[in-house]
Every structure is written in structure tokens, then in C-alpha cells.
């Protein structure tokens, strides 16, 4: 077996076969870097706010600031999967408590950037509760944030 390096005085000469392998290593490293940089999943801050309508003091809206949620909601929500208002309320109470706990503790700061003021004694209606529940499902499915347990 031949040595890769040939010693001549103080200089070390590189074996010719080793020189031809260098460009392939360089190409492999560059391809790996390009692949690693392109596979980064963009993260968007998510936020949900409950807002009282100014026209009617008993009606509420929910504002979700995640641009991908609406498309996900349209493809995943089906009236056949609908639940009762009590079911949505109980699940939302758990999820909001977990959301606010994550916010206060600083976990998931890239996704959770505010707390949610959800009060159990206020009747938000079926639409708001349904959309808030499905928003929590969206976060669990896409960001792997455990909220509805």
C-alpha cells in the first residue's frame, strides 16, 4: 500500500489520486449546504384574539393572524366533524390555559406571541368557540404544540 504523502525534505507533496478526490468532496459539501439551507421550514408567529363587536355588545369575533390557518381550516373542517358548544368550551378552556402557560413560561416563542383572554363565564357563541378549537387543532398538527390534552 502506497503512502498518500511523499516526504522530500521539509515539503510534503500530495499524492495525485488524493488531489482528484478533492473537487468531489467540495461538490458534496456544497450540495449538502444548499440542501440544508433550502429545507428550512419557515415559521410564522401565530396569534388569536377575541374581539367584542362594537355594533352589538353580545357578539364576539376571533382574529387569527396566521396566514396559513384559513386554508387549513377550509380543508380540514367538515360539518360532519362538528361538536356541541359545551364540548368546544371545555376543550378551549384547557387549550387556552395551556397556551397562556406556554406564553408565560416563554416556550414556543416563535409561534405564541401573546396571551388569550378567554373567560368561561362569557358566551362567545358557537362560531367563535368552533374556530378557536380548530385553530388549536391546527397548531397541534402543524407546529406540534400540545394544547388540547
Q: Concise description?
A:
With 149 residues, this protein is an alpha+beta fold. It is built from four helices and four strands, in the order ββαββααα. The longest helix is centred in the first third of the chain and has 23 residues, at 16-38.
Which keywords apply here?
149 residues, alpha+beta, two-stranded antiparallel sheet
Describe the structure.
By secondary structure, this protein is of the alpha+beta class. The chain has two domains: 5-38, no CATH class; 48-143, no CATH class. Helices cover 47% and strands 12% of the residues. The chain has a two-stranded antiparallel ribbon with strand order 1-2. Strand 1 and strand 2 (11-14) form a beta hairpin. The protein is elongated and about 70 Å long. The N and C termini lie far apart (63 Å).
The main pleated sheet reads as: 2 strands, antiparallel
* Helix count, DSSP H or I runs of 4 or more residues: 4
Number of domains: 2
Topology pattern, helix = H, strand = E:
EEHEEHHH
Mean pLDDT, all residues:
80
Write the layout of secondary structure elements.
Layout: E1 5-8, E2 11-14, H1 16-38, E3 48-52, E4 60-64, H2 69-76, H3 85-105, H4 126-143
Antiparallel strand pairs: 1-2, 3-4
Helix pairs in contact: 3-4
